[in-house]
Structures are given as C-alpha cells and as structure tokens.
C-alpha cells in the first residue's frame, strides 16, 4: 500500500484536480486505508478542527502513528491544514502535555484510547491519548476512520478499548507457500527468501491489521510441519515479528505435536514424558530468545489425522498443559483447537467436539485457550452455534471463525460474513439464563475467563487485492471489528467498510450495504437452505455435491448429512435421533427440538422430515426447498442489478472486477440450484412446483463435472 | 504497469517536481517501460523534434501503438510538446499520407518498421511506418527506447526487422498455478478464474513482450496435462489470446502426446493410428475455432518419463509430423523438443539428443521445428553449444534458452544471461566452414530453414517485479532482444536495459553494465568452474551437491558428471572416452579434444585429468580450481561494492532489494566454494593452496543440509 499511497499523496500535493482519472487506476491493494480527498467543502470544514500534528516521543509505534496520521490527513484533506488547530498524540508517560491534561484513561486499558477535543489558547486541540503506544496508534486509525466515514470530529470525547484480548488471524499457510483453503494466490509469507528479504507487503499487512485492532498472527497452517519450529524457520518468523512489532502484532506458530520425534530426535511425543517436556521447554526458550514477544502456539491435535496426546493415551488437557508450561514463563499462551473427530467414533460428528472437551472443563492451564469453531461441523454457510459455548465455564474458550470462504463460494462469490458471525455471537446459550450470548462467552463476561480470544482463518494471499476479490476484504475488516467488539453491529461495520473502501457517498453506501447484508443469506439459499449442510463437492468443496457418498469415511460425504430418501430429508439430532440437541442448555435444546418453535433456517440440521411436511409458508417442504434455491439465484440477480446501478460511484477497474465476479456467482448459483434439485428429485421423484424451471442438464451431467485444479486443497 | 503509469502520467501533468520522492516508491513492476521524465534540458531538446502524434487508423494494434506513444512521450517529455512537430504512425495500406511518402519498406517484412525524420511544411515530421500494424507498434517501442536511452532522434532513418520468425516464451506453468523451475511466485495465468476474469497483468505482460519483439507464448508446461486441451481450458487460452492479439502475441500450447487416450477415449496414442490422427485433427480444428490465430503445439515426448511415439515403436518424426498435419492447414507449427534421454540408454547423456535426432534429418514436415537446448546436458552455467546445431541442415532447428535460473542461483543470484547466450550464439559450428555460427543456424541463414525459432523458458511469475528480482528482468529483456537479432551484442543490450530500467545516467550504466557483464562468469566460477557441470543439489538444484550419488538413475547424480577420484576429475568425452566430441564438426571436435587448444573454460567437460595437471596459469589443476572458486566469491564482493556505490542513482526500494539479494548471493557463493572444496578435498586428499581459507564446516555438515521447501520443483 505504501507506494501507491505515497504517490497519491504527492499527486494531491501537486494539485487536486486528478481524482476522477486516478479513480480509474485502483486495484484494491489499499484496502480500507484509502485516504482519498474529501470534497472541497467537507475538507474545508474538517481542516478547521484538524490542524497540524504535534511532534511525538521517539518510539517506533508513536513514529508510525504520527506518520500514518500525517499521511492520512494529507490524503483526505490535503497537505496544507493551517487552520490553527493541533493534534496531540501520545501517552501520559511519554508526553508531559498529555500527562498535564489528566485525561481519564483507566478504561482504555492496554490497547484502547481516548480521543478528546479541547481548546488550547483559543485554538482547537484534538488529543489522541492512551496508556500505551499501541493504544495511540489504534486511536489514530479511529480518528482517520471518522473522517473517512465523514463523521463530525469537532466535538469528540470517544473512549474505546477492545473487549477481547487476543484478536488473531490464523494463516493456514504452508511452508511451500501454498495456502490450505486459500483463494487469493500464494501465501504472502515468502519463507524461501526470509529472513533476508522483507517484502514491503509485510508492512502493508501489519498496517492493515493494526487499523482494525488485530494484534496477532499465527503464521503457519494448523496442519503443521515440524520444520516451522527449526532454527531457520524461527529466524524467518523473527524477521516477520520485527516488521510487525511497531504495529502491535505478535507472531504465533502452529505447533505439530509430534515435533519431539521429527526434529527432537526422541522416540515419543508423550506429553508426560520428561524428555518430551524438556524438548518443548527448550524449544520455547529458543523461540523466545529470537522473538521476545512471541505469542504462543496453536495446536490441532488428534484431529483429521494430526498427531496428539491421545496417541499416547493422554488427554487434550495433558497435551495443552505441557505446552502451556513451556511458554507460560515467557508470557505465552496455547490455543488448543476443539475441532476434533475421530475415525473410530461412529457417533454424530456434530457431537464429538463437545463430547471430547466438556469432561475436561477446569483441567486446562490458565494460559490455555480452547479454540472452538463457530459451529459443530465445519464453517458451513449456516450452522447453529457450537454447543461448547456456555458449556465450559472453567475453561477459557475462544472463537474460531473462517474468513476465507471454503464453503461459501471461494473468493468468487460475494458473501459478507459479518451477518453470519453476528448471528452466532448474538445466539443465546442460556448457560446462565437468558442473555447468555455467545458474545458474552467469548468476551469473558459470562464466565470470567482470564484470557479471551477471537481467531479468524485468514483470506489473505498474494493477489494484488489481498483477498481474491474486492468484497472479500470486507470479511477481513469485519472480523477485526468483531474481535475488537463482539457485540458490534455487522451492518454498521459494513457501512464503515463500504465508505472507507469505495466512497462515503450515501448513494453508494446505502445500496451497497443492503446488498452486503443480504449476500450471505443468498448463498445459504442457493447452496444449503433450511439447515442443510456440507453438500459441497468432495475434498475441494467447490460447487454442489449432494450426491457425494462412499469413500474413506461416512462423515466426509454429503449423504451422511442430508440423509435424503424417498420419504424425507434432514438429520435427526433430537432425542429420537443422535440427540445432539442435548448438548445445548435445556431452553435451547427444547427450542431446537420443537418443530413449532425452531427457526426454519435450522430445520433440517435438527430434524428429518417428510417431503410433504407443511412449512410455515404453507408450502410442503419440497416446494419450500425449491423455492429457496430459486430465491437464492434471484438474490444474485438483484445484487447484479444493484452493482450495475453503482457504477457512477466506483472506479472502472474495481467496478468491472466486481461485476465479473457477480456474473460468475450468478452462473454458479444457478448451477447449485439446478444440480441440487436434480439430485433431490432423483431421490424423491416429486414434480417441481409450478413455475419452477427444470434443471437444464441431467443429474449424471452434474455429477460428471470434475475440477482437478480447484484451488485451496 | 497500467495503473502506476497512468498515475504517473497524471502526476507529471500536475507538476514535475516530484521525481525524487516518487523514485522511492518503485517496486519494479514497470520493467523497462519506465517513462520517467528526462532532465529539463534534454526534454526540451527532444520536444523540439517530437511534437504531437497524428491520428491513426482505427485498428486495435494501431490504437495501442498511438496510446503507448502518447503515454511514453507524456512520461518522458511531459504533456505539452507544442514545438510544431508531428509524429505520423501507420502503414501505407491504412494511411494515405504514409503511402504518399513511398518509403522503402520491403526489408521491414511482416514485423519490422522504418523510422524516418522528414520535414513537412518546414516543420519536423517523424514517420514510424511498417507494412503491418504490429510493425508500427514495434517501431513505436523502438522510438521510445531511443529517448529512454537518450539517443538523438532529430535525424533518423532506421530500418529494423526481426531475423527470427518465432520468438517465443515457454511457460513451464502448471494448471494448478505452480511453475516448474519458477522462482518468482505463482503462474501469472489464473486458470481458475479464466476466462471470466482477465487480470490486468495479462495486458501488462503483452505490452512488455511486444516492446522487445516477443511474438508468442506457450502457456503451459512442457510436462503437460491433457486437461489443457479440453474445452474449458481452450476457452481460457482463448481469453488470453484475445488480450494478447493487439500486441502481436500468439498463444501456443504444450500438448501431451497421450491426450488421445486421456481425453479422447482412445486406447492408443500411436501416431500412425487413423483414430489418433483423427483425434488430433479434430482437436486442432476445435482450438482454431476458438483461437483463429493459434500458434501451434510444443511437445516434450519420450523424455523424462513423458509419453511419445517411441512408446508405439514410432519415431520422433512420426509423432511430430502427425501433429504438424493437424495444425498445418490452419497455419500452425509444431515445436518438437530434442531434449531426450532414455532410461535404457547407458551412453553419455550428452550424446543422446544428437543420436536420436540426427538420423531423421530431412524427415520432419516443413512446419515442424525441432527445439534444441543451447547445450547437450541441461541449462548449466556453462555448456559447449549443442552438437545438433549445424548437424541438421534439412530440419528446421530452433534454439531453447532457459531464462529462469534453475541452475544459476534461482532468482536470488544476480547473473546476466545475455553473455551466456551470446557465447553460444557466436560459437562456430564449422558446419559449412568457418563462420558457421550457431546464430546463423538459428536465424536460418546457414541452412535456409523455412521456419526459425528462438524459445526462452520464462522467468515470469506473480511477484510484483515479475521475475523475482530486479536484475532477472534483464534476462527476459535480453532474451527478447537476442531472439529479434541473434547477432546482437549482449553488452549493448545490457546498457539499454540498465538505462531504461534505472537511469540513462552513465555514472550508473557504466558500472552497472560492467557488473552485469561479469556476473555469469562469477556464477560459473563459484559453482562449476572449468567445464564442471550438474553438481547442484538433487532435484531442487539449489546449492552445491557434488556428493550426489545413487538413486534412480546415474545421470541424475553429480558423480556421473564430475567423475572425481583420487587420481583426477572430469568427464572424458574425447575418443578415449565417450567420444561425444565426434558429434561436432571435425575442426570443433579437434579443438575440444586437444588439450593445447581447448579453452580451459570447457576443460573438464571434455577431459578427465589428474589433479596435478598443469593449467595455463602454471598452477596444478586442483589449485586452479580452488583459485576459481575463490575468484567467484570475490567477484560477488565486487558486485556488492559496485552496487553500494550506485545508490545515488537508484530509488531506495529497488536499491535495497538488490543489495539484500547480493548479500544472499555472497553468502551462497561462499557456501558453494566451501562445500565444493570440502567435497573434492575428501576425494583427492590434497592440501589447499597457500592463502586459501579452509571450509568452515565439515563435509558432513554440508551434505546434511536439506531444503524441503525449495521452490520450483
């Protein structure tokens, strides 16, 4: 981002007449940090209160904060802002002027800030103060965002601080630079050339994350290689850590549990073996020597073939606590994933995370966080919240969202995930009565967790626009904002993002936000309506595959999840079936179990129902399903129309790119509808509702489609 | 390139004061098409003769030519060029004004041009004329290059035309976007999103190639998948062809010989089988329907495990001619690679290409070109020219160079390959007496070939700087220039490149070109001096591996090639050994065989000699080898010093990147020297010459180094 920003700033300095033409040359690399000039009238008003930026203390982060503020203001308001005002940045510790103001900063904590407007000798003074340098930087980004979104800045007293302590991106990036479930090019980590070569992109990455409050990055895939813990790779991680440090971003590593064997020369990785414990302690010491502020380990153990403590008859707690003891003295944490399901376990896969972890509540060390996916299966377009939330009051539980759209159309479908995450965070676990939302579990309020975490599986790659598509940037942004405040409104976040990324013009943000807010529901409709799930193509998860059956294991098939037959469809998870509902608090379980109470969005997740089951629309279930498939396709029609109307507000390059992607999405939505209908019709033999077009191809034709080079595997 | 160019042009329009700051923001994406402003005095002089660009005929290529000229002149000389002059572009066919001038254009052929300055009503007129639109575009790039390199343009009568007809990049790009032997990120072909999404990079690519006269691209790896010939992939290739067309660049595909079986439903790929022939004819028809100007096929057959006609007892000529018959009616060609060596053949691998192809001279169809690597082994830092050149007067032979540096330090070592290619092209085959250079074989003069070809294995990827490093761009550039004129001077090419890519300031170009000109020799010295070859790490070819032995086949080991033992070192290819020399014309064979005549650069390629063999320096062979290893390392010291001195002339970002890469190269050069010496010393037990530092590590330590994630495999 740096180069184009710099260039842009210079153009501005040279004369402000170029905006319309420059707008044609955007590729999205700037993300939401687009400091494009405000209209002349607006800019003049802002300039009156902004003024010049006072010098700051000589620390790396404060220098970054000041440079960012200067750059942002120059872009938005021009180089000359001589209205007489001043902006003062810093901490009471490093700035006597700020100390003298005695601003109340307790609630700002370690990473928050206070922005207050005052007058100083009759002139406007804006103070961006915090207890820490990074808090100041967060304040600077917020201040700029106020201008980017055209809010008033002349009378501010704004205090904000993150509600969650660890706000982390999880990169499923491999050491060969491929990215598991990555749809935006290669890994941005150029491991081969690190530590010598520091791609300017690393700085851009740090800056983007800091601007939304993300404070950590797990650099490597949870399906980890032990090599990432060897000396050369520690040095590479240290180089990244050095680049990220001024931006308040710590590095973490995924640790392969069998590393003591693979790189430690031991015969076992048994967590109770003294030599194994010594290996991990020494390894932690080695890492902290190179990276004094190393964040800690993320571990996927005994899941999908990964090694783990159960290989030695030990528990997840044994494994996690051993690692926690190694990093604990250095201030590090261990994030232990609850995404487990065993080959041997014949039970409903949706129940296994809960079954394996709930019994160990209270047995994990204080610096362990159990990292739980939002739902019990695997990042589907819609899942009910994971039953572990609310069920482990004595264990730090963190949330794992997937920003990359493994199951929602890769980077080619426009699906704003803020609404999905908000839906989960606002879900009520009833763990301590009504209002015990998942958000309150995650932010620690409900159970008093000592460590709180929100993790997002990154959608970032080497594509010039970072995320593979312009609108997928919104998911990175929304994740950061929700990690900062799990109770934030996804609509407000979408509005800010659209304004900062494209234009604050309400003629744009109004329709664009509306389109974003409905986009995920459209995907649910055309892919997996009414609680259907995991019906994607085998392995690559691209396109429809409701026919997927057989193979290595039942719960890697579609038929396992939809259980469609001549009589009906759906997974009975009530007491008459797998009884997965019993893992939820009684009021939740009761609601999910009761056909008169359950929201139909979750219907077939919990119930197996006859095709002629009467839905609330009055339509039989089959007709309602077909209706929703078609509704999803029509919704994409609507998105295309909306976007076409928005062309006056968007540069040609980005407008054209989004339009092209929407055309792909439209075609693939139709394909999802048609292939799903063809398949289910082959099962139930029912006619289509009146007015519904039959699939243009035979079921065999859909089944024959193969995608040998699908990305992300 | 487009966005930053556009932006840049705008900045210029707004005021020319920004150059020093802008220079800090470069990342190399602009390549040699950097139209940065000339100094005020120079610009004024140029403006006097340049003037405005006259309207052109409404064809895609002429529109591109005019836009490119406008953009280039605006960048170099500013928007206002109202000195009264005019530039006239076009062909006699489309421009009555040009037709009226009756310029002699015969020698310009189909792709060349004439640039002539005239006066028109007392005002300067510059005419860029050609027989074809693409010739005009080539002329425009040349005209701009004259200004970029600060040559006089006020009195021009310059005619130029390519000496080689097919000037092609070979992309070893796989359909999953990995690149075999690629060291600059992923393939720029985003197959997954094609044909819908047309990355702006495709246009940048076409433009860069057109500017140096490259007129074709083989899109996929010679180790090909049949999928690339299926309808979806033909559509993707057609989308690229559409983007490239105005720039005079045709697309070609690598064809997997067994495609009739894999995608044609046949049981055989026998080239004499009527169904197989029908398959290829239909396939060619299908491709030409989608891509009317499709170039043809490139085939790697019966080589390194690839299928081919020999699987059916047929010859290379049988296979090539069958494909040639399929594409011939459409004007297409078949490039059939001579890089073959069989598992069964126990003979010196250096002999096999010649042995397998020479007997078929005259049996290949007219539209077949046999594509021969520059040397008989495999793109080593130095190889004698391939003995097939000059040996097949009745068969179109084309040259295959490798631009990507598989064996010369990947993209992290600075090695300008222009000198290597010039060395090969200037080598005298003596096929028709003295002066029968490889260049004259390749450009067709020697044997009157009906089709001439120079192919280069591309070094292009998604890295923002295209080639993985700034200086590797020079190899792409030099390849294009040498394909246009195989007798061009690599030093003149380096000078043009350095001037266009960095600055025409001679205080820069003098030392920079000197550094480039010596750089490949440095690599030869620290990797494989005196005719040693193929001693790189197994499979990935990264770093030293003279100890590599055993495994699948002897000629994939290092010991096969250096044959070092207690007594001596080198591969005896004279009459007392494999007699590979006999494949060359007698004068060449005699020179290579005779220890008193052979250039010592090729010594150990052809001779096995005792360690105490007295070299021309007076030193024994072992001492001379050590001396050369160390000389190579010292040469990199010199490159680092040169580059440090050049910092005033280069923007900080690119200067820093090159400096970082040189530091890596210095470290790795030392590693090559040390590991090679440690190994050969373990064989010969000889002491080091006085003053030579012993390797810091044990041989075992060097051998133990492993690079599991080396790129390009």
From TrEMBL, chains A, B:
The UniProt entry, under Pfam families, shows:
Glyco_hydro_67C, Glyco_hydro_67M, Glyco_hydro_67N
Q: Which residues form a coiled coil?
A: none
Alphabetically sorted, this entry's keywords are:
Carbohydrate metabolism, Glycosidase, Hydrolase, Polysaccharide degradation, Xylan degradation
Q: Which residues form the active site?
A: 304, 378, 406
Kindly list the biological process annotations in GO that this record carries. glucuronoxylan catabolic process
Q: Give EC number(s), comma-separated.
A: 3.2.1.131
> Is Hydrolase found in the keyword set?
yes
This protein's GO cellular component annotations are:
extracellular region
Domain annotation Glycosyl hydrolase family 67 catalytic: ranges: 147-466
Q: Where are the transmembrane segments?
A: none
A GO molecular function assigned to this protein is: xylan alpha-1,2-glucuronosidase activity
> What InterPro entries is this protein classified in?
A-glucoronidase_C_sf, GH, Glyco_hydro_67_aGlcAse, Glyco_hydro_67_aGlcAse_N, Glyco_hydro_67_C, Glyco_hydro_67_cat, Hex-like_dom2
* Residues annotated as domain Alpha glucuronidase N-terminal: 31-143
What residue stretches are annotated with the Glycosyl hydrolase family 67 C-terminal domain? 468-691
Query: Could you describe the subunit structure of this protein?
Result: Homodimer.
Family according to the record: Belongs to the glycosyl hydrolase 67 family.
| Listed name of the protein | Xylan alpha-1,2-glucuronidase
